[in-house]
TrEMBL record:
Residues 16-90 form the Transcription regulator PadR N-terminal domain. Gene3D superfamilies: Winged helix-like DNA-binding domain superfamily/Winged helix DNA-binding domain. This is PadR family transcriptional regulator. It comes from the Bacteria.
Length: 121
């Protein structure tokens, strides 16, 4: 299944903030976590993640710090700021409303998300 670009873009901020709410992380690990959490359905690229991280950092939602990895390579670690935690809470409320609306629509009698009415409807 291919998830549409607009939906991926809309969900990117709460997904990254949610991952960083669990623990601080760095770019490659965030990409791996997204793939893991989605069961492989979402595969983000560096070109998508790093601009988002930079925007979140400029907005004060995340903070970063350069560290040296075990291999000796520099690695930028990101963590959620207090402002980012508030943003995540707001995003959670908004996405819950959207999810509830879709659940109600798709569980109601009628054609449903496939556009095909169930037998006997």
């Amino acid at each position: 299944m291919r998830i549409g670009k607009d939906l991926v873009a809309a969900a990117a901020t709460p997904v990254v903030l949610g991952i960083l709410a669990e623990q601080e992380s760095y770019g490659y690990a965030i990409l791996q976590k997204v793939t893991e959490l989605s069961g492989g359905e979402l595969e983000w690229s560096d070109g998508m993640l790093y601009p988002l991280l930079h925007r979140l950092e400029r907005a004060g939602h995340v903070e970063s710090e350069w560290r040296t990895s075990a291999s000796g390579r520099p690695r930028k670690h990101y963590r959620l700021s207090a402002q980012g935690a508030a943003m995540l809470a707001e995003q959670h409320r908004q996405w819950t409303v959207v999810g509830d609306v879709l659940d109600k629509l798709w569980s109601a009698p009628g054609p449903g998300p496939s556009g095909v009415a169930p037998a006997g409807a």
